[in-house]
Structures are given as C-alpha cells and as structure tokens.
Amino acid sequence: xxxxxxxAAVTLIWSLPALAEQLVWGTFNGDLAATKFSxxxxxxxxxxxxxxxxxxxxxxxxxxxxxxxxxxVWSATPLYANETLYLGTPFYRIxxxxxxxxxxxxxxxxxxxxxxxxxxxxxxxxxxxxxxxxEGPCEKRVLIGxxxxxxxxxxxxxxxxxxxxxxxxxxxxxxxxxxxxxxxFSLLQPPTxxxxxxxxxxxxxxxxxxxxxxxxxxxxxxxxxDLRWDTGFIPPELISVTGTANIWSSMSADPDLGxxxxxxxxxxxxxxGGNRTDPIPLATSITAIRIDTGEIAWSFQHVHHDIWxxxxxxxxxxxxxxxxxxxxxxxxxTTKQGFIFVLDRRTGTPLFPVEEREVPPSDAVGEVVSPxxxxxxxxxxxxxxxxxxxxxxxxxxxSFGQCSRDRETYRYEGLYTPPSIEGTFLWPATAGxxxxxxxxxxxxxGILYVNTxxxxxxxxxxxxxxxxxxxxxxxxxxxxxxxxxxxFYAQDGSPYGIELFExxxxxxxxxxxxxxxxxxxxxxxxxxxxxxxxxxLAQQWGFYGLRSWGSPTLGGPVVTSGGVVLIGASMxxxxxxxxxxxxxxxxxxxxxxxxxxxxxxxTHQGVDYVVWAVGGxxxxxxxxxxxxxxxxxxVP
Amino acid sequence: MLLWMSLLAAIxxxxxxGLAYFDPESGIGGTEGALLAILxxxxxxxxxxxxxxxxxxxxxxxxxxxxxxxxxAAWFLMQGLLVIATGVALVxxxxxxxxxxxxxxx
Lengths: 636, 106
Hints:
The structure holds 2 protein chains of 2 kinds. By secondary structure, chain A is mostly beta strands. Helix content of chain A is about 5%, strand content about 35%. In chain A, the strands form 12 sheets. In chain A, strands 1-36-37-38-39 form a 5-stranded mixed β-sheet, with no helix packed on it. In chain A, strands 2-42-41-40 form a 4-stranded antiparallel β-sheet, with no helix packed on it. Chain A is globular. By secondary structure, chain B is an all-alpha fold. Chain B has helices spanning about 1-20, 30-55, 55-75, 80-100. Chain B is elongated, with a radius of gyration of 14 Å. The interface of A and B includes residues 541, 542, 543, 573 and 592 of A.
C-alpha cells in the first residue's frame, strides 16, 4: 500500500468537508464535485468477497425494440436521499424504492411519449434531487426529464406533482427551443441542482443536420421553474449556419467558488465544419459558468474546430491538489480522445503542460481544419496516440486479409486525422476513449480511477450526390429506411453524409489488436500512471474473449475509502469490485445486461449498500434489462 | 453401461445449455453461442444414442468431434457445468470405445 506523502496529506486536509457528505448518494456522480468517492469504509479488498445480493427489483420499463416500442437504453445512477432510493426509467417514470428491501414506495409516470425523437432508443440516466431544508409537501423534490423536453418536479415523500413548479409540476423546457428547432430538447441526463438553482442541459440528434438548435445551459428556480438565465455556446453570428455545442452529460459544481463546470459538446454537423470555419471557442470545451448570473468565468477548448464528434463527455471531477506547497482547487477532465486535462478550476489554467501540436490537413470540400490541437502528455493519455493498434493477425487470417487491406485503404496520420471520402480511421472511436461515466477520485490521495474503451472505427464522407444511392443500396430490404442502423447519417445541409462503422471483419471480429478495454489509476499529484490493466471481458455471440483482451465500457467507477473500486460498464453483464491499489478483480456477479451505469454506494440504517441499475446499451450489445440490484456485505 | 453414462451426460448438457439460453443471468441468454451449445449437445446426444443401437467407427469419431467442439464452445461461453457434462460424455464415450466388451463394429 502506498504511504501518504506530504502532498497527499495536504490533499486530505482540504478534502475533509467533502468526506462528511458521502454517506448519501444524492447526485448522478455522488456529489457535486463528481468525485464518485464513497466513504463506506467497510468495503475493503479483504471484505468485498463477501458482497451478496440484498435484493433485486424490476421496473418493468424495458423494450428490446422488437415490438411497437423502440429499444431502451438505461444508464441511471440510483439516487439515495431522504432515506429512499430514487430511479428514473427509460419510460420516463420515477420509481422510489426502500433501500433495505427494494420494495416500491411509490412511482410517478410523466406519461411522456415513448418515441425515439432524438436518440435511437428510449434513454434515461436517472433523476435529480432537491430539498429546501424546510418540512412540508414538496420541500423535498425529485426531478425527471423526458425526451420531448419536459421537466417534472415530484414530492419526494408522496410521489405527487409539485404544482408550484412550472405548470402543475411540469416545466416545458422545450418551449425555449425557438431557434433552428429541428429536434426537441431531450432531457435524458438529470439536471444539476446547486442550492435553489436547477441547471439544465439537453441532448439532441447527432449526425443528422447541419443547422441545429444552438447549445445552451438553462438555469431555473428550483421551487417555481422560473427562468433565471440561459447561457449559449454558439456565437450569435453563427447561429444561422450551425448549432448544438450542447451539454448532454452531467456537470460538476463548486458552490464555494460559485461556479458550475459544464462539458460542452461539438458543433454541427459533427464530421464536417466547412459551414463553421469561424472560431466557436466554447464548443468542445470545459466551461466554468457563474451560478448566480450565468456569466462565463473561463473556458478551456480541448478540441479546436471539432470534426470528430469528440464532445466533452462527462462532468469534470473536482479535487484539491498540492502545488508549490499550496492547495490548488483543481478540475480533472477525461475525454473521448483519451487526454486527461488537469486545470486550476478557479482560472482554467492547466496544472500540467498542454501543448499545441500540428495535425493533418483535410481534403474535404470547404473544410478548414485547425492547424494545431492541444496535446497533454502528462498525465499519460488513456489512449496510446503514438500509433493505431496493429492489425490483429487472427482476424486478418479469418477474413483472408481484409483487415490488412483496410489498413492500407483508410487514412490514418495520427490523432485528429480528418474524415475523408476514402475513409479515415477514428482512433479512438467517436464514443471514446472515455465517455460519460467519467473518472472517480479518492480526494484523500488525489488518485484517479478511470475505465477506457480501446475501439477503432472508420468514418467515411459520402458526397451528397451519392448519399441517397448508397443508403438505398445498403438498405435494399427496406427495413432501415433512414440507413441509421446500417451506419449512414445524413448531415443534411452539408456537402457530405457519412458512414460510420467499427473496423471489423465480415464475421464481426475486431480487426485491431486487443485490448479492447482497460482500467487505469493515476496519481494526480505527479501525473504518473500507477497501473493500466485489461478490464472486463469482450463478448461476441455469447462467446467471451480472453481476460487479457478486456472489454469496451460505458458507465463509470466508484472508489471507496476502504480501497475498492466498484464498476459495471463492461459488455459481459458483470458488476465487479476491483482492488484500487492494483486494478485486479476481487469479486464479480452476473446480471442480466451490461450495467452501463454508475453505481450508488451509500449507508442506510448503518449498512453499506452498492446498487446498480442494469439496463444495457446497444453500443455494447443488444441485451436490455430493467433490473435493479443491491448488494451488501454478508452478515457473519 | 459406459455408453449409457455418456448419453446421460450428453442429455444433461442439453438441459444445462437450454437453461443457459433462457436464463437472463447466465451471461449468454438468448445468444447465438448458447444456441450453438444446445445444438452441439443435442447432436452429441443423438449420435451417442445412435451408437447405442449401431456401432460405427465413423459415428464414434463424429461424436467425439462434436463433443470436443461443444466443450470448447462451452469453455468460451464460460459455462462450467456444460464443460463438465460434455467432458463426462466424452470420457465415457472414449472409455466405451476402448473397453473390449464394448468394442465397436469393425
């Protein structure tokens, strides 16, 4: 076990106030700092082998897409607050459960339309919680959003609408969607609640349009839903030609500094930028916004002129780090492209060197790429950018050399190779690297824990004149008129549609050398990577890959003060406990689908619980579920 | 006797693989791999049943090939019980083949 350095001791002292709040799990990431740290000391490397199921429950809200309803994607973090467990479901219902037994206390149905309006599936990442501190009806509230852009406030004790919020408990957030409204504001990620302010981001429909709603952050009053402010991320003069740069993921906040830290996504269209050659400095950025006014305090753009859909995918993790004998409030942002940016969260100044480096040019019509992009070598990126993974000989052999031929055909000249007509390897893939699960940090030591997908995709620009014919040819059976399921996306209004697919053989084998997923730990005090190990098991048609191959992941880890990492995320339907010191597996359990969520880890009536929502995500595999599984240590 | 034991183990393999296909917490529920395991187990059982009635070197070799492939599939499906069941079926089959009084037709 590492001994605590003097630097880490400073970290510990500065983090103590946060530790006192960790027995609840009141937000998507556990706390507003998005540490995903739980002070449940009983969960240790020696004890977790004794984890057993306390209970399991089902919401009933699941669809595999074979019937009338679209498939479901369920990535909710359960919230533990008010001595109750709250979950949002992909049918946009809130379910309140007894944390000790899983028995349902109440449920609330938004009666939202169950149509895949912006996403390929019905999707939910959970609920948010607010309490005023007073007693009485609706002084404690649970909030859930819907894909069609409404936000519902419900009494946390009774499950009834809080009628003073919006109109009879429903705030029509989509009513503010007044510009380029080609899709509704989809409230799939629960909002962030800071004090009496609800901060709302929204998801849109990627890859479909060139001109889309301009991304913004909306702040409303937690009691009434009245608009306090909204802050946009697209320069006003460009709103007629582009859009998005939205916030579809979770946020973090530092109430003491009065700042909310927002992960801003890429502008539209995602894979061609000839319509937006003027700078959009807030797109694909980490941006700090003053909670009381909406004013932008600072912004750090980590991809200039993004044409890879490398959205900022997760809430930055807040931690205090020692620098020159001082305790510096820092922010750690994991990214799809695999960089870990560590910034001073007061100013946005990098705490490790960030260097602008030249990147390859584009040959697409009208495209003007940024000549340089920011690179951060410390901490070591979670993705090895020095080269693309080699062709996997087994897949190459079984595909009679298809993988090798692909390697010669498609373009790759390093990270940020632009999309092209001949096809460009996306390494890392458009889902990352690291995605919305983000990282966990132990605030006592400044050690960061993160799961990473190692996936190669191919992006191909298709000239507009050829697009419809290519889609028609690829979807000749008529079952996929949009072509989306076949990997085609229109980017309407631009000179190019796209085809996007994983680099696989006709049999479905990955063409690139494993591993496909890893788990790593970093010492944020020094930037050193402490370990990197394959994580999870890849699966194809039910067959498992070798342990050394790992698995792509979606969802994030939680670290406990006892030195255990709790994580689902892998495609093999397993939830696991890892030794935080080594990354080695200590315990696992089979569940019904990939647990593409962040677990809630909390103490209820003196007993520590770990609860996962098990829902699956078609990005990993088509298995879906509506399972909620709670674990606790067995009683000796 | 040994062939009957092999048949019983193969039938156990059919049951185990069938349960795995329909159990959402088996890790392979509803997958093509589970279907393949069921198919392998059924073919193995049917071939052993055939061998009980008619001794054939060709069919014995076929049964062993199917058994080995099914066990291999079960291994990569992480279905320990199916590996054991198929392994027992194979060992019993081999024992039946090498035991003089159970000699198969030339």
